[in-house]
Amino acid sequence: MVALNSAQSAAEGSTLRVDGVSKAFRGADGVSTRTFALDNVSLSVAAGELISIVGPSGCGKSTLLRLIAGLDSPNSGELRVGSEVITAPNAERGLVFQDPNLFPWLTVRRNIEIGLVARGLLREKRHEVDEFMRLVGLEAFANAFPHHLSGGMAQRVALARALINHPKLLLLDEPLGALDAFTRMRMQDEVLRLWRARQTTMVLVTHDIDEAIYMSDRIVIMSPRPGRIERVIVVELDRPRHRNSPEFLNLRGEILELLHFAGAATA
Ligand SMILES: Nc1ncnc2c1ncn2[C@@H]1O[C@H](COP(=O)(O)OP(=O)(O)OP(=O)(O)O)[C@@H](O)[C@H]1O
Ligand SMILES: [Mg+2]
After folding, report:
1. Which residue, judged by its Cα, is nearest atom 11 of ligand 1?
2. Which of 23, 26, 35 has most ligand 1 atoms within 8 Å of CB, for mutation?
3. How far is the CA of 193 from the centre of ligand 2 (A)?
């Protein structure tokens, strides 16, 4: 009998639909003028697609990710994963932030299996912990503690911890933002490899234009105050992509110009 290797087997990604979503926050005193973090944002993501969201600080990228995660609700509009309206967080929607947020008193293995423990699934799925540690290349560090890990390794633990729940949608908020440039480029390949192996739908927030072009099927460019989608760019370059190819550099120039324009228009 062939044992099913669940870490390598294709998990089906979900579609995502964001429909006319607006989100406003009150001023710091709780009553004064409202900030429209998102204003009538609509977006469709296909199953297994990898999209990036870029835009200046404060344009609502994290707010949008929090709404998709179900950590907050919109003032108007609707969000759906598959045919389900998003109303609360769900293990099928994984989240990885810039800070890996590992528990310092737990080993790599314990950090990765924590979601299974919380859902009472550890006994049934214990074998998957080893598979996911292998998938992110950390099997030799199973018993290491977070303070023994480099930034890139810690972020791989955070990715494995999210992936072990077999998310149909993985939400990444600047997950590589704290890494040095070389580690960051290596981790981009790592995330792409995981994306291909799992076929998970991914939404990646990044400030790094090269990262967005290198990784995504489409790039969503947002503008701030109020947070809106300025443009959606389809990246038609074949993978693996070459950061120095003329097509890559052209697209980079186009996006930088667009972001500058977006910033100037709202100043
Ligand atoms: N809980 C909150 N209460 C009040 N205002 C908020 C809250 N969360 C976000 N905002 C405001 O909403 C706007 C969008 O914030 P958000 O964190 O989504 O931006 P961002 O695009 O992720 O920025 P960055 O690139 O700096 O992470 C900002 O003006 C921010 O001050
Ligand atoms: Mg943010």
Report:
1. 37
2. 35
3. 25
Q: In what order do the strands lie in the sheet with 35-45?
A: 35-45, 16-25, 76-81, 84-85
Ligand 1 contact via 59 beta carbon (within 6 Å): yes
**Is the CB of 63 inside a 6 Å radius of any atom of ligand 1?**
yes
The listed CATH number (3.40.50.300, 3.50.50.60, 3.30.300.30, 3.40.50.1460) that belongs to domain 11-92+169-180+200-267: 3.40.50.300
Question: What pLDDT score was predicted for residue 263?
Answer: 46
**Is the CB of residue 103 below 6 angstroms from any atom belonging to ligand 1?**
no
d(CA 74, CA 144): 41
Neighbours of 27 (CB within 10 A): 10
Asked whether 200 lines ligand 1 (CB < 6 A), one says: no
Q: In the prediction, which pLDDT does 84 show?
A: 95
The whole-number mean pLDDT for each consecutive block of 10 residues of the chain, a chain of 267 residues, reads 47 90 83 84 98 94 96 97 95 91 96 93 92 89 96 92 92 92 89 90 96 98 93 96 96 89 47
CA distance 247 to 251: 6
Q: Best of 31, 34, 54, 63 to mutate for ligand 1, by most ligand atoms within 8 A of CB?
A: 63
* Ligand 2: centre distance to CA 123 (Å): 36
Q: How far is CA 211 from the centre of its chain?
A: 13
Residue 210 φ then ψ, to 5°: -60, -40
Other Cβ atoms less than 10 A from the Cβ of 85: the count is 11
Query: In the chain, where are the structural domains located?
Result: 11-92+169-180+200-267, 99-165
